[in-house]
Specification:
Layout lengths: L1 H12 L3 H8 L14 H7 L2 H24 L4 H16 L12 H11 L1 H18 L2 H19 L2 H17 L1 H10 L2
Length: about 190
């Protein structure tokens, strides 16, 4: 049953909201601007409604996986693996040759559903770095650092390692944005 849950988690991550929102508008977002299947690209190419629909759809994926794991009474580590897999599924969807989104909205859903208290640290870290750098990308890195720090303080680091691995995958997907933000700051 656990293996099926994990497979389902990755499969849910493969549902690329931006792909279907784009198709609904007659646009292939993989050929537009950043070519990324995420809310930011959907919004910049199509508009605010596409941004909101994509954000909501991707966020719900993360919440859904955590809620299902808890409804099925899995241990927390099993749910955290599922949470990591939904993000990895979003980043690397099989049916799109592993070319998905960058995972932020799905992570937000996962973070809120797993532990709203820990997620507050993500928000605080993002806001603090954003206030100094004026870069949402760098703010996100600050948020991840504070989030992982908060996990360490809870004493549950081993349980959350699968999610931390998913965060590292997200940072790798954001590497061009990070480089661009750092170059702008010079």
């Amino acid at each position: 049953m656990i293996g099926l849950y994990w497979l389902l988690s990755y499969g849910i991550g493969n549902f690329m909201t931006a792909y279907f929102v784009g198709k609904g508008y007659g646009v292939n977002l993989q050929e537009e601007r950043s070519k990324n299947l995420g809310a930011r690209n959907a919004g910049s190419v199509i508009g605010k409604t596409a941004f909101l629909l994509t954000l909501l759809g991707d966020l719900v994926k993360g919440v859904l996986v955590v809620v299902l794991g808890r409804l099925w009474h899995f241990e927390e580590w099993v749910v955290v693996v599922g949470a990591g897999l939904v993000i990895v599924g979003h980043l690397y969807p099989v049916w799109l040759r592993l070319n998905g989104g960058k995972g932020v909205a799905t992570f937000i859903g996962v973070g809120l559903a797993l532990s709203p208290n820990l997620f507050v640290m993500m928000v605080v870290g993002t806001a603090m770095v954003l206030a100094v750098t004026r870069s949402l990308t760098l703010g996100m890195i600050g948020g991840f650092i504070l989030y992982v720090g908060a996990i360490v303080l809870t004493g549950n680091l081993l349980v959350y390692i699968p999610l931390i691995i998913a965060i590292i995958c997200m940072l790798i997907k954001h590497s061009s944005n990070i480089k661009e933000s750092l170059e702008r700051g010079k």
